[in-house]
């Protein structure tokens, strides 16, 4: 372990600083498809009993009208956020009728592309902008790819913690610049080591044959309805998932905020010929916001993003440029099909220790060669991470995934111990011990467990997924929301519908003018 990492751990472990570790924020965004009792995509509209997908703070939709997204408030303790996520699930199930929430990252029974409903947000200009953006995604990547679900983990450290580190290092830059620089250091380390998360938590080693719908692939056949790779951890995060030829040339550097902003700024303003051939209109209707590499910054797909809460009228990169990085969003986590909420507390505790390690350990700038090595290690882990003796590359030198993984856990352990000392318990160390067991016993990984069940039961992916979906539904329906919870969420729903109605009644001007202003960055909202 390097000297700087140990020094930072010791500094934050001092009595006057230890409380800072409990002042960061955590939040979860969980995506899940609505399906019918047979596991087929629900084609019904987003229920008004859940509120407005445009303005509700906790229940919205992602790409499709059928793809729900649950968002927890940011909390100091991830256990609190998970309790809130559980409450959202129980409320939604109280309003779903016979529909179910799909238990997997990968969908199974999807209708023809033209039948997959794009999310609708009403007739306000911002609602229409969100809808048109998703029309653009359909043109660029296909609707099926947009029906893949995941867990997003939002993470920040307390501002006071960054101030302690800055003072100790004698750094004379502004607090905003120091914090942004350190979040980018976290991101660089995350990209070096995130293959470990794929091995430990990847849970999509198989998918339904119908999902690929004639696409070329090199998957093995498990049965007539199921394709898989024998050592895969996360086909969702492989080249079978969300991919873009236009984005292949987009390689934002994570060495500093300025270069990251510059790269994304170019991508949202640089035309891409195949998109230009499509145009922005068809039969007089908008079909994409623009014909550039990216319609908006959030179209850039990455396993982790630097984030900043935006103000009305800002684009994400404008907020980052003005006020720096506020938190990071981890985007590579699969839905855990064995957990009703798609993630559990033990996994979350490990993520906290892993991310604290990434933040405090030395993080040299990334060269083009190392960036390629990081990408290749990640790709190898998602497609063959459980292969016995699999070797990754560390600074050009081969090392087995297992050996490197165990080394990393040893390095993360002091960060986990520091978090436990702050709490006066051992929950982070316990999670670390469970991850060590997965490295020593590959059959304990979620991906191995999924394949073992499919093979032992001679069960298709879709059948297994539907069985888990129904079990999770029974779990939530057995614990309906209390009268207080019901009143709280119904109040949020009512308020959100009123807010959407107010937007639609009070807006001025036409939609074309609104889009023009948005593209000129003079009138922008998050979409």
Explain this structure.
- Pathway: Sulfur metabolism; glutathione biosynthesis; glutathione from L-cysteine and L-glutamate: step 1/2.
- Keywords: ATP-binding, Glutathione biosynthesis, Ligase, Nucleotide-binding.
- This is Glutamate--cysteine ligase.
- Its EC number is 6.3.2.2.
- With 527 residues, this protein is α+β, with helices and mostly antiparallel strands.
- The chain has a single domain (3-13, 24-245, 254-519), classed as Creatine Kinase, Chain A, domain 2, CATH 3.30.590.20.
- It is 47% helix and 11% strand.
- Strands 1, 2, 3, 4, 5, 11 and 12 form a seven-stranded antiparallel beta sheet that branches. A three-stranded antiparallel beta sheet has the order 6-8-7. It has a two-stranded antiparallel ribbon with strand order 9-10.
- α6 runs parallel beside α13 (368-384) and α14 packs antiparallel against α15 (427-440).
Give the overall shape. Answer: globular
Largest beta-sheet characterization: 7 strands, antiparallel
**How much strand content do the residues show?**
5-15%
Work out the radius of gyration.
23 Å
Total count of strands: 14
> How many domains make up the 3D coordinates?
1
What's the mean pLDDT score?
Answer: 94
What would a concise description of this structure say?
The chain is α+β, with helices and mostly antiparallel strands. It is built from 19 helices and 14 strands. Helix content is 47%, strand content 11%.
